[in-house]
Backbone:
C-alpha cells in the first residue's frame, strides 16, 4: 500500500510540475486576448464565465498579467456591464495601447463599446458606444484591434441576416482610439467558413485572420489588411481526450521569434459555460501556412524576464 501511495503521489507531483494548461483555471475565463505591452509584461483580456453555469451571460471582465507566460496574476474586475448606458451581456473583448494609455474594446448587446484606463489592468472607465449594429442585423460582436502600417483598425464579426454568412467588418480608428473614421467600414468576405472571434496578426509580410469554427480554429491569409484573403482551413482542433469548446476563440503573440496561441476550452471543469484559458506553441511551415496543432496539457515553458519594449 505504501508503494502504491508513493507511486500515486509521484505521478501527481510530476503532473503538477509538467502540466501548465490551463494557465488560468479560475476565475473561469474564455476568449483570451493576449498582448505584451511596453512594460515587457504579458496581459490576457478575456470573458469571465460565472461560477454558476447555465448560459453565456458575462457581467464583467478581469485582466491577468504574467512575467513568463506561465504564472498569471488576476487583477480583479476591470469593467462591469453596469457601467455602460446600454444593456446586454458581455462577449469576447480585446485591448490596445497607445501613448501609455490603454483601451478595452468589448461587445455588449447591440453595441461595440470602448473604455479607457491609465493602467493595463484597469479599472477601465468612461465606457462609450463605438459602434451600434445596424437595425435588423442579428449579430455584430467580438472586436479585435490590429495596428498596421501606421493605423489602428477595429475588426468585428458581423452578418446582415440569419440566412447570410458572417463577414469581417474592418473599421479605421481615429487617432483618439475611441472613434471610428467616417465611411471607413470595409466588409471582408471570408466565405461561409467564417463565424466569430476574429483575431488579426502579421508575420513576414502576410496578414492572418484566425477565427472560430465549430470546436476548431481556422485561418485566412492575405498580403494586406484589405485582402483578398485566402481560406486555409482549420489549424487547431481537439483530440480524443481534449475537447475544445464549440465557441473556439484564439489570439496570437510573438516573443523573441516564437509564436504562441492563447485559447480556451471547457474540459476543466467539464462544462461549456465554465471555460478555462490555455497557451500552446504556434508554428509555421516554410510557405507561411500554420502547422496543424492540438491542445496540450504540457503547455509552454516559462520565458525569461523581458526588458521593456520600445514599440
Residues:
Amino acid at each position: 500500500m505504501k508503494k502504491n501511495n508513493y507511486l500515486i503521489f509521484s505521478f501527481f507531483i510530476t503532473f503538477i510540475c509538467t502540466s501548465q494548461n490551463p494557465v488560468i483555471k479560475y476565475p473561469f475565463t474564455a476568449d483570451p486576448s493576449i498582448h505584451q505591452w511596453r512594460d515587457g509584461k504579458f496581459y490576457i483580456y478575456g470573458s469571465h464565465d460565472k461560477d454558476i453555469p447555465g448560459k453565456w451571460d458575462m457581467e464583467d471582465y478581469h485582466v491577468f498579467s504574467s512575467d513568463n507566460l506561465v504564472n498569471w496574476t488576476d487583477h480583479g474586475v476591470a469593467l462591469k456591464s453596469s457601467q455602460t448606458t446600454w444593456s446586454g451581456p458581455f462577449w469576447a473583448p480585446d485591448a490596445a495601447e497607445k501613448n501609455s494609455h490603454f483601451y478595452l474594446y468589448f461587445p455588449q448587446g447591440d453595441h461595440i463599446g470602448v473604455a479607457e484606463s491609465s493602467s493595463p489592468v484597469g479599472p477601465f472607465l468612461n465606457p462609450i458606444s463605438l459602434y451600434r449594429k445596424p437595425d435588423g442585423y442579428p449579430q455584430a460582436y467580438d472586436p479585435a484591434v490590429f495596428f498596421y502600417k501606421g493605423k489602428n483598425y477595429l475588426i468585428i464579426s458581423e452578418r446582415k441576416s440569419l440566412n447570410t454568412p458572417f463577414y469581417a467588418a474592418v473599421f479605421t480608428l481615429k487617432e483618439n482610439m475611441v472613434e471610428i473614421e467616417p465611411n471607413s467600414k470595409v466588409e471582408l468576405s471570408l466565405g461561409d467558413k467564417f463565424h466569430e472571434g476574429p483575431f488579426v496578426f502579421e508575420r513576414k509580410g502576410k496578414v492572418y485572420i484566425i477565427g472560430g469554427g465549430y470546436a476548431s480554429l481556422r485561418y485566412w491569409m492575405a498580403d494586406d489588411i484589405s485582402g483578398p484573403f485566402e481560406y486555409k482551413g482549420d489549424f487547431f482542433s481537439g483530440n480524443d481526450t481534449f475537447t475544445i469548446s464549440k465557441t473556439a476563440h484564439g489570439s496570437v503573440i510573438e516573443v523573441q521569434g516564437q509564436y504562441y496561441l492563447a485559447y480556451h476550452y471547457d474540459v476543466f471543469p467539464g462544462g461549456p459555460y465554465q471555460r478555462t484559458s490555455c497557451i500552446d506553441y504556434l508554428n509555421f511551415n516554410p510557405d507561411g501556412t500554420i502547422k496543424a496543432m492540438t491542445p496540450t496539457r504540457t503547455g509552454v515553458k516559462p520565458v525569461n524576464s523581458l526588458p521593456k519594449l520600445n514599440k
Observations:
- Residues 2-18 form the longest helix (17 residues).
